[in-house]
Amino acid sequence: MLSATLAEAVAGVFPYAAGVGLSPIPIITVVLVLFSARARINGPMFLAGWATGLAALVTVVHLTASQLDAGTDDTVDDGIAWLRVLLGTVLLIAAAKKWRHRPGPGEEPSLPAWMTRIEGISPVRALGLGLLLASNPKNLALSFGAGTSLAQLAVPARQAGAAIVVFVLVGSAAVIVAVGYASSGVAGVRQRLEEAKAWLALHNGSLVAVLYVVFGALLVSRGLGSVT
């Protein structure tokens, strides 16, 4: 059974982890990686890069906020609160931009140019791509929310570490499922992954806009709610 402090720590990071895990871009990217020439190696390497990047982000934020005495220093806590409000506001503005530029009815979605070069990607580049995508602006904002929440709860190091593992696992869940599914040998894997990629690409703008609104509002509300 979870101890009270661990339960609080997990509850503190879980909403942010869900926001990381629901993003369509890493799912589209990992599917493309799984279609590349060295897919058996590239898929796990991309996953390793993604998970490592998430772990590094939230750990650095947590340790920095803890060193600044988050949770006990009112000035630091107010600074964190207003930074949450700022980051949440940025996500809300980005949501409006994404919504305006989503494909219209019957319009083909355009994926970033770098995605067209994934077919010949090497394992090292797949690792680097996972690290890079893990550090996207949305993940930075959500990792800030998760890491500062842990610091303000002042849970023991072991419980904080366990909560960070939960953050990484939830944030990586879709990528883990895609890599595992591709390695399962089930008939029709490629076709189903292709269908999932096509659907996500078509609705990427709308999905990202909704995610930005939900988690931007979360950051703003939690920031304003903790201003002293």
How does this structure look, described?
The protein is globular and about 55 Å long. The two termini are 34 Å apart. By secondary structure, it is an all-alpha fold. α1 packs parallel to α7 (157-171), α2 (24-34) packs parallel to α8 (173-182) and α6 runs antiparallel to α7. It has one domain (4-225). The chain has 9 helices and no strands. The protein has helices at 4-21, 24-34, 39-67, 74-100, 123-134, 137-153, 157-171, 173-182, 189-225. The chain is 77% helix and 0% strand.
Care to give the gist of this entry?
This protein is mainly α and 228 residues long. It has helices at residues 4-21, 24-34, 39-67, 74-100, 123-134, 137-153, 157-171, 173-182, 189-225.
Low-confidence stretches: none
Number of domains: 1
- Mean pLDDT, to the nearest integer, reads 88
The largest sheet is: none
Distance between the termini: 34 Å
List keywords for this structure.
mainly alpha, 228 residues
Please give the structural blueprint.
Elements: H1 4-21, H2 24-34, H3 39-67, H4 74-100, H5 123-134, H6 137-153, H7 157-171, H8 173-182, H9 189-225
